């Protein structure tokens, strides 16, 4: 059973009410202070020691190394592909497993994979994209935990004005159904402090992905019912 968490909002101005409606239309839930400031600093310090590397990704038929670094953790037999890069998760470690447990208790969702992105400064960014990869279980919400510097996320949809949401340290963001929206972390050169975000997903196992591909490639059209004479 899926459990949707509703953030508690206390608003005193029309602007805040407008923001609340904007978030509702985005189909997201923002939970500030999921971790306290002290907890956020502790988590950031521990996670900064993870084996981050610069991935090689493909954008518009060209390969390049983004400024951000990444690594991932997850269950066995998982593989996550994005922008031509194949991410093979490391076995869960104690810190990441503790955060995973806290996130699952809050959301009521079980995850088997988490991607960590490390932004050394505001120059590091992520272009607009959708979480619509075949390897993802589309029925499960994607949850992002932010640690370190506060960065903005921009949500865009064709025909709509882009919406900017600040992701504060220790905050949790749930993205429910995002088929019509793209999201991005824009460059903010004025920021000098680093940031780490953890994006929890449910990824199909390699075996399940192979079976799905075989079913698509070798599917047999349904037989027509024969009429008995």
TrEMBL record:
The keyword Lipid biosynthesis does not apply. 2-oxoglutarate binds at residues 117, 119, 183, 195, 199, 201. Substrate binds at residues 80-82, 132. GO terms for biological process: DNA alkylation repair; methylation. It comes from the Eukaryota. The keyword Cell membrane does not apply. Residues 110-204 form the Fe2OG dioxygenase domain. Its cofactor is Fe(2+). SUPFAM superfamilies: Clavaminate synthase-like. Keywords: Methyltransferase, Transferase. Pfam families: 2OG-FeII_Oxy_2. GO terms for molecular function: broad specificity oxidative DNA demethylase activity; cytosine C-5 DNA demethylase activity; ferrous iron binding; methyltransferase activity. InterPro entries: AlkB-like (IPR027450), AlkB-like_sf (IPR037151), ALKBH2 (IPR032852), Oxoglu/Fe-dep_dioxygenase_dom (IPR005123). This is DNA oxidative demethylase ALKBH2. It comes from Araneus ventricosus. The gene is Alkbh2_13.
